Write a sequence for this structure.
C-alpha cells in the first residue's frame, strides 16, 4: 500500500490555508499554532493507494473503519445478497476505493441530509450514492452514505469502469456497504477494524 498523503478533495482547501497562513506569518511573524492547524487539516485528507492485488477475486475493504454489520439483505436488482457495512469516522482515512474490478452498470445519487452514520434513519434520509456493478460476471452493488461532517459528495470522474483498488472518492465520515452475491465467502466479522485494502472476502467464480 502506497501513501499518496493528500486526497484530491483537500487540495483547494489546503492551498487556500497555506496562502492565508503565509500572509498572516509575513505580517505578524512565525506561529507554531498556524502550522499545527495546517498539519491537522493535511492529516484529515491523508490517503493511501493499494498498489498490487494478486487474486482478482479478492474483495478488499473499500474504506478504513469498523465493520458495523454483516447480514442478509434483499435488493430488487440483486435479489438476496450479503450486506457488509463499514463505518468510517474522521480519525480514519477517508478515501474510498473499488473493492473489485467494477463495470459500472448504473449510478444513483439520492439527495438527503448529512447525518451521523450511527443514527437510526441515516440509510433512509442520508445523502447517498449507489453503484450497481458487475465483476467476473456477477452483479453486486456499492452503497456510500455520507456522514454529518461532509458538505457534499466527493466522487471522482471515472467513467464506467474501475480497476481493483482504484480511487472512487473521499468522505470525512459515513458508511460504505458492499451488497455481495449470497455465495460470497466473507472473511471478516462484525466489530472488526479494517484498513483500506484489507481482505473482506472472496467472490466465487
Amino acid at each position: 500500500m502506497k501513501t499518496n498523503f493528500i486526497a484530491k478533495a483537500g487540495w483547494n482547501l489546503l492551498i487556500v490555508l497555506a496562502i492565508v497562513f503565509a500572509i498572516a506569518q509575513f505580517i505578524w511573524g512565525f506561529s507554531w499554532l498556524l502550522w499545527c492547524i495546517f498539519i491537522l487539516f493535511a492529516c484529515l485528507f491523508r490517503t493511501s493507494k493499494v498498489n498490487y492485488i494478486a487474486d482478482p477475486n479478492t474483495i478488499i475493504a473499500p474504506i478504513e473503519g469498523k465493520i458495523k454489520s454483516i447480514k442478509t439483505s434483499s435488493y430488487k436488482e440483486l435479489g438476496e445478497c450479503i450486506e457488509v457495512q463499514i463505518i468510517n469516522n474522521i480519525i480514519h482515512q477517508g478515501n474510498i476505493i473499488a473493492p473489485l474490478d467494477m463495470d459500472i452498470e448504473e449510478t444513483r445519487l439520492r439527495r438527503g441530509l448529512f447525518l451521523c452514520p450511527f443514527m437510526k434513519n441515516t440509510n433512509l434520509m442520508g445523502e447517498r450514492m449507489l453503484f450497481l456493478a458487475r465483476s467476473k460476471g456477477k452483479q453486486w452493488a456499492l452503497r456510500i452514505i455520507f456522514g454529518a461532517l461532509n458538505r457534499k459528495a466527493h466522487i471522482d470522474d471515472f467513467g464506467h469502469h474501475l480497476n481493483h483498488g482504484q480511487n472512487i472518492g473521499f468522505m470525512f465520515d459515513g458508511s460504505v456497504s458492499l451488497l455481495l452475491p449470497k455465495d460470497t465467502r466473507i472473511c471478516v466479522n462484525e466489530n472488526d477494524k479494517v484498513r483500506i485494502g484489507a481482505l473482506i472476502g472472496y467472490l466465487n467464480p
